Amino acid sequence: MSKKPSIPKGTRDFNPEEVTRRNYIFNVIKETFALYGFQPIETPSFENSETLMGKYGEEGDRLIFKILNSGDFLSKVDDKLYSEKDSNKITTKISEKALRYDLTVPFARYVVQHQNQITFPFKRYQIQPVWRADRPQKGRFREFFQCDADVVGSTSLWQEVEFVQLYDAVFTKLGLKDVTIKINNRKILSGIAETIGAEDKLIDFTVALDKLDKIGEDGVKKEMREKSISEDALQKLQPLFSFKGSNDEKLNALSEMLKTSELGMKGVEELEFIAKTIEKLGLQTASLQIDVTLARGLNYYTGAIFEVSAPAEVNMGSIGGGGRYDDLTGIFGMPNISGVGISFGLDRIYLVLEELNLFPKTVSENSKALFINFGNKEALYAMEAITNLRNAGIKAELYPDDTKMGKQMGYADKRNIPFTVLAGEKEMEAQQYTLKDMKSGAQSSVSYSELEKMLAQ
Amino acid sequence: MSKKPSIPKGTRDFNPEEVTRRNYIFNVIKETFALYGFQPIETPSFENSETLMGKYGEEGDRLIFKILNSGDFLSKVDDKLYSEKDSNKITTKISEKALRYDLTVPFARYVVQHQNQITFPFKRYQIQPVWRADRPQKGRFREFFQCDADVVGSTSLWQEVEFVQLYDAVFTKLGLKDVTIKINNRKILSGIAETIGAEDKLIDFTVALDKLDKIGEDGVKKEMREKSISEDALQKLQPLFSFKGSNDEKLNALSEMLKTSELGMKGVEELEFIAKTIEKLGLQTASLQIDVTLARGLNYYTGAIFEVSAPAEVNMGSIGGGGRYDDLTGIFGMPNISGVGISFGLDRIYLVLEELNLFPKTVSENSKALFINFGNKEALYAMEAITNLRNAGIKAELYPDDTKMGKQMGYADKRNIPFTVLAGEKEMEAQQYTLKDMKSGAQSSVSYSELEKMLAQ
Prior knowledge:
- 2 copies of one chain form a homodimer.
- Chain A has helices at 16-35, 49-52, 57-63, 79-84, 87-94, 104-113, 158-173, 186-195, 202-209, 212-226, 231-241, 247-258, 262-281, 346-355, 376-391, 405-414, 425-430, 448-456; strands at 39-40, 46-48, 66-67, 97-99, 122-131, 143-152, 180-185, 287-290, 304-309, 318-325, 339-344, 369-371, 396-398, 419-422, 433-437, 443-446.
- Chain A is of the alpha+beta class and 457 residues long.
């Protein structure tokens, strides 16, 4: 093979710095999940195809990566079907497994399969890769990690309150201030549709409303008219286009607008509980903002809907989202289990932290010191010190070969190792080590215990 | 879907306890890798098929999971080929990607692809799942994690020395004492083959010798005779069957046996350097043992060969292995890069720690306290305390619903949460909390700061 090897489009190699930074984000999220009582589960990378197919719509089915059966897979395809040469029809005959498309359906499958071992309400988190045969483009990959936390088995709104706190806690720890947690409620959207007499057009109406940010009031109205939403209905919608002010003011306006809709008022009541409780408990750095245009994932959310926006100074869009769904496990024959969950958008959070220079300098798995190799006798002396340093939890390494000093120093330099240690015959005799600060160039002669003390800092 | 959902055979769900225990092992290994100067990389779960195919032998090619192309994949198969209905021939036409089979080939691909960004010697570790379409059986899975550390770009034996130390450090931290690190050298095996005049039968001869533990001296000799190894050769081999004693004694016997083989003597010299250096540096709990029957992965190892055995009291076999290879990246057009690496067998280490009851009790992501929910007013009082506890790094949670106390207590019990906190009207008035130890049943009335102090322990 003479051409340079490559990886499939839409996938990525991660170098040490990238892995370390990604793990830093994962660890902050994991620690916070655990602080909030969530416990980790993991599911297989591939599921039986029947578990995944039909759960994400037609487009989703197309984007699921299917795994070819092993062995003589064509022998199971009957000749008549084979002669049609129809990719769609043959797929289920030659492929029985598929790569995970998200963490939600495998979680639902897990809950149903292990229901007798699970203590409900079940608070689980899951951080694993998912795969989608999407057209790769900037910021969209065919393999990426999802970070989800969900509770199933309780309808309590305290969980929504905790998820708002959890978002605040994670982004505060990451140093990402001024994050906006937007919240809406499916019942409010249904209530509005009811009030304006467009119940049958709920999806069209919310899809259009969701674009207010992007296409403005006139654009939204144009799209609604195209979907045959009446002028009378648009008239009634007017207050939404100038929906401003504090959460309290918005709640008042919504109460006024939705007073004839029982469902709508239920949504207002839920939103009010969450907003007022968060006001009493306080948030550290994030703010909670009612946004009635938010319609994310409306097809399955039934209560609260969340979306987190990065600080306005970075142009990144949503870095997290979630909501309440009332029948997650119904698809696997276990109906009426209410759940609520949120997720973090790792790749975007990474880009935001990078852009704002928020990764701590100490996020590094790098060695603290490189011992220069002057030959086997000196290397043994060095290795004795290195062994002791490692036992003390200090990252140190020996350059493996006794090559030219310049090459060894160059290695320390390129690897950004902050100190080198030189120990030749003279140092061995005096039971000393020469410690060199690679940045300042300063050198000092130290005993082992001084060495350990200086490198431990 | 009415039948209970399931997962593909050979795959596993991991519940919170299992994930936590697996992460405990991973973390010990990762921390130790970092202490030794290794840095993490990650590669995509699937590679271009041409990267993987042909690298693991015919059997390996068969066991690689192939991913079906998306869209109308049959349209790219010409009618003539299609009409043959030959699974083998059609595979490369309908599948261009395949799941990672191990971490070694993707690592070689990574090194070649990114050679201009890498500082050599390159010390990397990688902990990711791999997939094999093997027949599932006890302890053998179709998806499992590999934990590998390798150095490429140096032939220095100090690296072998460090890997012995690294094994010792990891197993010592895991509390797994009396692990045996067996070491051999490909050059010694080649030297023996040379000495007995069976150079052309090196593989047959070492495959047979490797079974000494299992089938005994007579079994090995029988197999060698079947492979047409001469009686004269068997005669010369005799010392190997009673190869006992200290590493020093074994080295002396090998020197005697291999004195006419230059290559063999080079192997003895290498083994001697590693064994003597380890003797000087000392190991914490493991022992290093020369084992000339060890032939693991002989097809690609060219120098040292390692294998780690669990303590004799558990019947588990190898829990780690590795060795030196001289041409890892040659398959991708970058020749003469020497490397040496080791890996840890996570699943087996897990079983050993479980059998010996070595998982620390504190390995748990579990909440420290469950606050009982007496209704919204009381829950707010509880949530204020919970918020403060979480800010102090203490895991705590509120039962989401104000259901019967028995049910809430039962939840704490089943989840093994050690404390419950009760705060009703009386406690709220007194600004107190009733803390209940779920094991002893003891209750005490405490202030918030006392509560935090007690739960922090």
